[in-house]
UniProtKB/TrEMBL annotation:
Family from the record: Belongs to the RecF family.
Record's keyword annotation contains Metal-binding: no
UniProt GO molecular function: ATP binding; ATP hydrolysis activity; single-stranded DNA binding
Keywords: ATP-binding, Cytoplasm, DNA damage, DNA repair, DNA replication, DNA-binding, Nucleotide-binding, SOS response
Protein name as annotated: DNA replication and repair protein RecF
Residues of the Rad50/SbcC-type AAA domain: 5-53
Main location, first listed in the record: cytoplasm
Annotated ATP binding sites: G30, D31, N32, G33, A34, G35, K36, T37
Gene encoding the protein: recF
Biased composition (Polar residues): 81-101
Taxonomic lineage of the native organism: Bacteria, Pseudomonadati, Pseudomonadota, Gammaproteobacteria, Lysobacterales
Length: 415
């Protein structure tokens, strides 16, 4: 998929800007504080319902305004999501390759903008099909507390449905948290991938989240066993398959991630992934684990076992543990994980997610920049790269790039 138009209103320092990007590489330059990252944040907001830097109410809305608005128009393959369990059928494009060679088969994403220009947020005028591709539109108005969204001309009742439409993978200065930060980052990574490739995952995830809320409320109110039994069963019925989806997703990602990590950080040795389901799954079914922990959970007032406590870890042959990774190595590993996720998405959905690379030059040395840019270019994915200057690695990476410049709250395309 590729974005053909992005309108941003009242986000950070922007009053109102519009970006008409190319389907390939787009570079956004500007001085410190000009608003380059804000452009990526706007895209991320539409795809995740939050910024990668903060929640909406923590500074995303322009000072003095009530809400921020983002409108995105994009082209995507009509085939949409192929409903296949991750890991069971990676698809024709799943032959993952290294950064040094050409990435997997390039989905055809060459269609241009629909040509139809729309004003106004967050309304959309419906879905426009055109052969193998279609144009989609999403608008989101977010005040931090409330939100209002439209997708293809219709109101959206759940933010998750809006976010599941546009797939964006963002690499930014905080991305190392995926490897060295809290488990929540790693659960989100799995869940984001699954939202997009497995149609049964989101309802299951919602069912689990609801059951967890209910069980926690009962624990807090010291409810009797007869009430908790039913919610334990419900939690387990949603939690077991949810956990299996995550495990299989991680298994499906692992080979591509290992190859990408070997290219980006070869000195670390062989990569392996370990999934931790959130309870001793090898010993007990979840329903039994919940029962065993019931008294402890009553005292604590929350559920201490289950997929909401899941995690996954990366280990490297040459290191004692992920704690031994330098910050730079953690960043390279996070980038490998994000690109592997993008690659897997492309293999299953036959369409690349949009890739955001914030401040690439300050994150990677010249040689790694060039490798990543070559890889992204060869993939056919649309990418948004930001930097105070043209990244040095871009000089070594041959091919077209569309340039934009941000200054004084304005966003301009440079010819
Ligand atoms: N809520 C807000 N209201 C108004 N202005 C804001 C708000 N939040 C941040 N800003 C300003 O918006 C700009 C944010 O810019 P952004 O982080 O996108 O810049 P950047 O070009 O990526 O900068 P850098 O190169 O320093 O990373 C900064 O000038 C910041 O002071």
């Amino acid at each position: 998929m590729h974005v053909t138009r992005l309108d941003i209103r009242r986000l950070r320092r922007f009053d109102e800007v519009q970006l008409l990007p190319s389907p390939g590489l787009n570079l956004i330059t500007g001085d410190n504080g000009a608003g380059k990252t804000s452009v990526l944040e706007a895209l991320h907001l539409m795809a995740y319902g939050r910024s990668f830097r903060a929640r909406v109410r923590d500074g995303l809305i322009r000072h003095g305004d009530e809400a921020t608005e983002v409108f995105v128009e994009w082209r995507e393959r009509r085939a949409g999501t192929v409903q296949t369990m991750p890991g069971t059928n990676p698809g024709a494009n799943a032959e993952a390759t290294s950064l040094a060679s050409t990435p997997p088969g390039r989905p055809d994403t060459t269609g241009g903008p629909s040509g139809e220009d729309r004003e106004g947020l967050p309304a959309g005028s419906g879905l426009i099909s055109d052969g193998a591709e279609r144009t989609r539109r999403a608008g989101l108005r977010h005040s931090g507390r409330d939100w209002e969204g439209r997708l293809d001309g219709r109101p959206v009742s759940q933010l998750g449905d809006l976010c599941a439409a546009l797939a964006v993978v963002s690499f930014e200065p905080g991305s190392h948290a995926l490897i060295t930060g809290a488990a929540e980052n790693r659960r989100r990574y799995l869940d984001w991938g699954l939202f997009h490739v497995e149609q049964h995952f989101l309802p299951l995830w919602r069912r689990y989240a609801r059951a967890l809320r209910q069980r926690n409320a009962l624990l807090k109110s010291r409810a009797g066993d007869e009430h908790l039994d039913a919610w334990d069963r419900e939690l387990a019925e949603a939690g077991e398959p949810l956990s299996q989806y995550r495990q299989r997703y991680l298994d499906a990602i692992e080979p591509g991630l290992a190859r990408l990590a070997a290219d980006l950080a070869p000195s670390l040795g062989t990569l392996r992934l370990e999934y931790q389901p959130g309870w001793r799954r090898e010993d007990f079914p979840l329903v039994d684990a919940l029962l065993f922990c019931r008294e402890r959970d009553r005292l604590a007032g929350f559920t201490s076992v289950g997929p909401h406590r899941a995690d996954w870890r990366i280990g490297f042959g040459a290191l004692p543990g992920r704690e031994a990774l330098s910050r730079g190595q953690a960043k390279l590993t996070a980038l490998a994980a994000l690109l592997a996720q993008a690659e897997h998405h492309a293999a299953i959905c036959l369409d690349w997610p949009v890739i955001g690379l914030d401040d690439l030059a300050s994150e990677l040395d010249r040689q790694h920049q060039a490798r990543v840019l070559d890889w992204v270019r060869a993939s056919g994915a649309q990418a948004f790269i930001t930097g105070t200057e043209v990244p040095p690695g871009l000089a070594a990476s041959k091919g077209a790039i569309t340039l934009f410049h941000v200054e004084h709250g304005m966003l301009q395309r440079l010819e």
